[in-house]
Design brief:
The protein is mainly α. Helices cover about 80% and strands about 0% of the residues. It contains twelve helices and no strands. Helix 2 runs antiparallel to helix 8.
């Protein structure tokens, strides 16, 4: 009886942590939307990545168990550079640019299909199986995305269409980073790799930000510093630690199942915190998107 109660408590703890992680992941785009009122997207992200990266790198230097990562040859450094490009500079750079012309809830919905793209890329690149369940999930999610974006594309607003394209490319970049990690980075410390890829992502964005965005429009106010602080310590560090804990408790496959929560939770939080009223097609499309993601990440027939 006691073991059953302990198991129930552990299950509840894992479920609550998964829900919290999904909420924090979605909140990054909501806080990012607020932060854009004070700074262009690439300056906001550069600051986030550099501060978070330097903080995590300092931790990795202070803890002896990470020291071997610095002397394991060139491969971990190359992976950190590649993941910095895919998972930070491109994924978040594109999605934050999309936030300028699209509601945060819509960007979250579009980026949430990254697991679908990962499954397809892993089939062609890694030779992973594309089961019947995954194929059904792929088409169900794509149908949901079609329902969501069609009215905006049909309106012909260039800024909205560009935002949809950027958000879709960002999901593709995240999927590419996931495939690279699966293929090459499983033997590298996840914390060390996240620390340096975050830092490298920030370094990559700085010259792009100086080229594309005007630094004179940055408002050095509480909104800016609050957004950077939240994105650094709550999302880049806090959410990452939660994700690592979930993987340690239930494994990567079961932890990934929780990704189906991102679309509806993101839409809800955008409504609650930003007062973004979801359109009828977003409400209708979010369910097949979530179902498709669930089918794909569960994977087995």
């Amino acid at each position: 009886m006691k073991s059953t109660a302990t198991y129930s408590k552990q299950t509840l703890s894992i479920a609550a942590t998964g829900l919290l992680f999904s909420a924090l992941w979605s909140s990054a785009f909501i806080v990012g939307k607020v932060g854009l009122e004070a700074a262009p997207p690439l300056y906001l992200l550069s600051a986030r990545f550099l501060v978070a990266g330097i903080f995590m790198i300092s931790v990795s230097i202070a803890i002896p168990s990470y020291w071997h990562c610095y002397t394991d040859g060139w491969r971990p450094w190359l992976l950190a550079l590649l993941l910095g490009l895919l998972n930070n500079a491109l994924y978040l750079g594109m999605s934050f640019y999309a936030l300028q012309s699209l509601p945060a809830g819509l960007v979250i919905l579009l980026v949430s299909i990254a697991p679908i793209m990962t499954a397809v890329m892993a089939y062609f690149i890694l030779g992973e199986s594309l089961t019947v369940r995954k194929i059904i999930g792929l088409f169900v999610s794509l149908a949901g995305v079609g329902i969501i974006v069609y009215p905006r594309i049909n309106r012909g607003d260039f800024s909205e269409i560009l935002g949809i394209i950027l958000a879709s490319i960002s999901a593709l970049a995240l999927a590419g980073g996931t495939v690279v990690y699966k293929a090459y980075a499983v033997q590298v410390s996840a914390f060390w790799l996240n620390a340096w890829s975050t830092f490298f992502g920030g370094m990559m964005l700085v010259p792009v930000a100086l080229t594309l965005d005007n630094i004179s429009v940055v408002k050095w106010n509480a909104t800016l510093f609050g957004a950077i602080g939240y994105l650094v310590f709550v999302v880049s560090i806090g959410a990452m630690l939660l994700w690592f804990w979930l993987i340690r408790m239930v494994g990567a496959s079961k932890a990934s199942t929780l990704l189906f929560l991102n679309p509806p939770l993101g839409l809800f939080l955008a409504w609650l915190l930003l007062h973004e009223a979801p359109t009828w097609n977003e409400l209708l499309g979010v369910f097949p998107v979530s179902l498709g993601v669930l089918l794909v990440v569960r994977g087995k027939e």
